[in-house]
Design goal:
By secondary structure, the protein is of the alpha+beta class. The protein has 8 helices and 9 strands. The protein is about 40% helix and about 20% strand. A 4-stranded mixed beta sheet has the order 4-3-6-7. Strands 2-1-5 form a 3-stranded antiparallel beta sheet. A two-stranded antiparallel ribbon has the order 8-9.
């Protein structure tokens, strides 16, 4: 009987402590940051298009990514045209891993027709900023370096994680493409 009462007393004293198991502060901060909308959410709302079959039309993100990879490129640019198929192949190979990042095409084409032709010809599977909105997107265009192709990976707050430029030195978009799997891993 004494053992049963002692056991009951220990359990009674331990239950409140078990129920109040604290969550480490580090985990709380990560969760809060993950749920906080990015600086890009409202900026991009209603301004994205994507290839839908053979047409380019309005696009809405189902879920906001943790990272944005802005791809500054143009149909008329030979180095861009050489890199884009590699980026399409990389992106398609990330199936199931793209929950953390999204590529957004930012066209430097001269007109909407050229931009849409580029999206269709290269079968870009990611969204693009609508041609009529690109010039007004100063908050995004500031990430473009001195030339294209330029590829920049940023977090939700706009902090650059990887860039085609290291200062004024052009290192190319392949560096960013190769950084995405490790830099966006959970």
């Amino acid at each position: 009987m004494k053992t049963s009462l002692l056991t009951l007393a220990i359990i009674t004293l331990a239950l409140p402590a078990l129920a109040a198991d604290p969550v480490p502060a580090k985990e709380t901060k990560i969760s809060a940051a993950a749920e906080k909308p990015s600086i890009f959410k409202d900026m991009l709302k209603g301004k994205l298009v994507a290839l839908n079959g053979k047409r380019v039309g309005k696009y809405e993100m189902v879920a906001e990514p943790q990272y944005y990879a802005f791809y500054f490129s143009a149909h008329w640019c030979p180095p861009c045209r050489a890199f884009t198929p590699k980026l399409v192949e990389f992106y398609n190979a990330q199936d199931g891993k793209k929950t953390n990042f999204e590529i957004i095409f930012v066209s430097h084409d001269h007109d909407e027709k050229s931009m849409e032709a580029y999206i269709k010809e290269d079968a870009m599977p990611w969204p693009a900023i609508a041609f009529r909105s690109v010039e007004r997107m100063k908050e995004i265009n500031k990430y473009c370096g001195d030339g294209i192709p330029c590829f920049v990976l940023v977090d939700r707050e706009g902090k650059v994680i990887s860039d085609s430029y290291e200062g004024k030195t052009y290192v190319g978009p392949t560096k960013v493409m190769n950084d995405i799997p490790t830099k966006t891993a959970k």
